[in-house]
Amino acid sequence: MELSTIQDSFERVSKKQKVSSSKSQELIEQVSHEVEQALANILSASDSAAPADQKSILTELKAKLAAISSNNNLEGSQRELSIALNKHQKLLEKMLNPDISKSYRNVDFDTSILNQIIINHFYREGQFDTADCLIKEASEPEPISLRLQFQEIHQILEAVKSKNIEPALNWVSANRGKLKDSGSDLELKLHKSQFIDAMQNQTPLDALKYARSYLSPFASRHMKEVQKLMASLCWAGKLDTCPYAPLVPPNHWEKLVDDLMKTFCDSIGQSFRNPLKVAVAAGIQGLPTFLKMAEVMAPRKEEWHAMKQFPAEVEIGKEFQFHSFFVCPVSREQGSEENPPMLLPCGHMLCMQTIHKMSKGNTRGFKCPYCPRDASVAQCKELHI
């Protein structure tokens, strides 16, 4: 919505500028024409022409220029353009440089948890010195085990970026049980990348020897993929133009690094997506709504700071929706711990508050709003989504 508002304002300014420019150009052309015409009249006059004739030509030119100036009303278009520019500038300052501190609420939170999230972020990014500095200054306990795990994976990732898969294979071997339970095919991807590298930078025979040693154990579970890799040997040296080109994407080593990091995060119970980056990105999307609500609630500051639940819907992308949620079809309110979804005997769902309202004063229970079956509060079961 904010972007469309800015775009509409810009289009208004652009329209004013075009009108002003058109009028200015028209005025310049008219003045130029009259001056040239007057100059031609003076030059065409004979040498014997009286000075009074030349003076009359100049007087006539002056009158025409005065008429042109008044008729074009250039000052008015310039004024309109200036007003539109000022409004657009103020709009940009308001929307693109807002005072985000207005959306802040002084709520209690565990600073230690926040510090741990930031430390985790630095570990993920490989900035171990920065994490150590935060641990020291914030007097936080050092998560030694987590640090060692991330140090190990960063060393492995650096090796893979240099097309050295041996450290990665050693890590896979040490964690084969976890990877098998999660259905990971990382080991096959590592050998596949090494096979492709051998085919591109060595001889087809070297690639075949590598396949016999390291790809054959995967043939029983990944037969089709192994067969395609073997068939691609016929196109050694020209894989980019062969039918098996999708097997060799230009960034397959970069994708392998991402797959390795994702598998590592899964193995230690961490999210592949950086939680701090996700939280910041989601906050940026929701910030305009927070600022708008803070502006609306400014006269009721105490009420604003006392709210336990945000009173407006915050639109963020689906990439930030990690959990299921329930919206009562009757009250249109989202389920919460205080107002959880309830399952009726008929299979329909309503929020607890809706059920209590519908059954209030009715000892026989209430009728489901979506089917003719009756139900009582005691028959309804809380759902955990």
UniProtKB/TrEMBL annotation:
Residue limits of the RING-type domain? 328-371
Zinc fingers, RING-Gid-type class: 328-371
MF term (GO), any: zinc ion binding
**GO cellular component terms given for this protein:** cytoplasm
| Source organism, top-level taxon | Eukaryota
Q: Which residues form the CTLH domain?
A: 149-206
Q: Which UniProt keywords apply?
A: Cytoplasm, Metal-binding, Zinc, Zinc-finger
Write down the InterPro entries for this protein, in alphabetical order: CRA_dom (IPR013144), CTLH/CRA (IPR024964), CTLH_C (IPR006595), Fyv10_fam (IPR045098), LisH (IPR006594), Rmd5_dRing (IPR037683), ZF_RING_GID (IPR044063), Znf-RING_euk (IPR027370)
Protein name, UniProt field = Uncharacterized protein
Species for this entry: Penstemon smallii
